[in-house]
Structure of Putative leucine-rich repeat receptor-like serine/threonine-protein kinase:
Amino acid sequence: MTLTNIDHEKQIYCFKVFYAFLVVLLLRMNNPCIGCSEREMQALLAFKQGLVDDGNSLLSWGREVQNRDCCQWEGVYCSNHTGHVVKLDLGDQSLRGKISPELVKLQHLEYLDLSSNNFNRSKIPDFIGSLSNLIYLNLSYANFGGQIPNQLGNLTHLQHLDLSSDEYEWFDHSIYAENLNWLPNLSGLKHLDLSSTNLSDVVGWLEAVNMLPKLRDLILSWCNLPPPIISSVSLMNSSKSLVHVDLSYNNLNSSIIQLLSGTHTNLVHLDLSWNNFTGVVGWLEAVNMFPKLTNLILYGCNLPPPIMSSVSVMNSSKSLVRVDLSYNNLNSSIFQWLSGTHTNLVDLYLSGNNFTGAVGWLEAINMLPKLSNLILSGSDLPPPIMSSVSVMNSSKSLVHVDLSDNNLNSSIFQWLSGTHTNLLILIYLGTI
Ligand SMILES: *[C@@H]1O[C@H](CO)[C@@H](O)[C@H](O)[C@H]1NC(C)=O
Ligand SMILES: *[C@@H]1O[C@H](CO)[C@@H](O)[C@H](O)[C@H]1NC(C)=O
Ligand SMILES: *[C@@H]1O[C@H](CO)[C@@H](O)[C@H](O)[C@H]1NC(C)=O
Ligand SMILES: *[C@@H]1O[C@H](CO)[C@@H](O)[C@H](O)[C@H]1NC(C)=O
Ligand SMILES: *[C@@H]1O[C@H](CO)[C@@H](O)[C@H](O)[C@H]1NC(C)=O
Ligand SMILES: *[C@@H]1O[C@H](CO)[C@@H](O)[C@H](O)[C@H]1NC(C)=O
Ligand SMILES: *[C@@H]1O[C@H](CO)[C@@H](O)[C@H](O)[C@H]1NC(C)=O
Ligand SMILES: *[C@@H]1O[C@H](CO)[C@@H](O)[C@H](O)[C@H]1NC(C)=O
Ligand SMILES: *[C@@H]1O[C@H](CO)[C@@H](O)[C@H](O)[C@H]1NC(C)=O
Ligand SMILES: *[C@@H]1O[C@H](CO)[C@@H](O)[C@H](O)[C@H]1NC(C)=O
Ligand SMILES: *[C@@H]1O[C@H](CO)[C@@H](O)[C@H](O)[C@H]1NC(C)=O
Ligand SMILES: *[C@@H]1O[C@H](CO)[C@@H](O)[C@H](O)[C@H]1NC(C)=O
């Protein structure tokens, strides 16, 4: 080995040491535990002090030497760039008590989840509206009560808002709103769930919702929603962005159907169950306008039979995977719609209608090559006429069949025997 070679080795060695040092330095700078600021730590400790922590979820929150870095506390997350507390994830931690106003000192907070705790019907604090960087706010199932604070309108960066509660508490909807005038301020909102809040006085709820151009998920189930007054709102901004709509268990009337038809071309999930659509005309035409619809859930709506004309084969037909039209006033014309192009249908629920005299219902069902769940009880179904239908396409895919409480006879067994090799559950309680 020559001298220059040794020098060279030394140089490389020095460079390696320097490089390692640099990497360690950079890693430290990027280290998530830069440590939280004294101010944020004090705010968190004040927040803890207001709470009753039955489950000892916040044991790591303390002043002791080993706990000093609040970014390491349970449920607390800091920005890797700035070191500020950006996320409080305290869902389902058996927390009770009061929410301290000191919380607003966490001005960099983007994500707040206090869901599934018990705040004993206390009002959602107004000062939440001062956490102006929030992107995600989840106060669901946390037993809040009283009026939704208008101050939420200050949260202009919000993308997810969930104030829903337990549908089993629907008798005493403890959260309510008199208006949603603050809602249009949240122009980046993508997900809104106010289920089981009492919105019975909010006449302009649809206008407010329509002002949200990015809204994808609209979940207002069990809200006592009054029927919207359809005016010029029917074709509006949010229409195009909506993907998932659940307005079940409200007091809507058939005008909502009018509203939905039109521009909702991205709708995938539509649930309007337990509203009263007596006398609605054109509901099936409206539904057929949604080219991406996969779930159509309209049980218990007093839906009249559709008038079958040109609607039987249309766009949405192909995309539908789950159809629930149970407990309506449909007649056998619905089978005409079902046969044909519903090649993706997996779940079909049609119980509680009146299919007296329906001819060809079994043929229609046999046209559905992917059908797995067929729930069709209590609908006065007549015995199928067994001819060529006994061995057909859908037979093989069926897993769960309920034809109880109809007027079938033993001919149904002729259909069942044969190729139903995947059938796991069969409920047949007819007279034989
Ligand atoms: C910080 O970085 C860690 C590790 O890469 C990551 O798990 C964590 O989610 C990041 N925190 C935030 C708030 O982005
Ligand atoms: C809010 O929290 C509840 C319960 O913890 C959860 O089921 C729900 O999905 C959350 N909402 C959002 C928008 O993430
Ligand atoms: C809940 O609030 C009521 C009054 O509104 C009070 O009497 C009761 O003690 C509170 N319960 C708990 C567990 O804080
Ligand atoms: C709303 O935001 C403004 C400015 O961002 C602030 O001055 C005001 O205090 C906030 N109001 C509430 C109730 O949070
Ligand atoms: C809407 O946000 C603006 C600030 O962006 C605020 O001044 C106004 O008070 C808010 N309106 C409501 C109803 O919260
Ligand atoms: C909802 O609010 C209305 C009016 O504010 C009230 O009359 C009604 O009783 C409330 N409903 C429920 C279920 O709390
Ligand atoms: C719809 O959005 C446009 C811009 O995206 C806006 O100018 C208009 O005011 C919005 N209309 C309603 C009714 O919100
Ligand atoms: C639905 O209710 C609204 C408001 O009460 C009313 O204006 C409208 O005429 C009703 N529509 C139908 C079809 O009953
Ligand atoms: C449904 O609406 C019709 C007419 O609008 C009305 O006659 C009927 O009583 C309503 N049914 C229920 C269960 O509210
Ligand atoms: C069906 O879809 C085609 C394009 O995929 C579209 O041009 C046509 O307008 C749609 N028809 C209805 C009734 O939505
Ligand atoms: C179903 O009801 C519609 C509308 O009331 C009617 O026009 C049609 O004849 C009925 N179809 C059958 C098979 O009863
Ligand atoms: C079912 O419809 C038939 C006529 O299509 C009618 O005679 C019968 O009364 C209806 N049954 C019920 C329970 O409404």
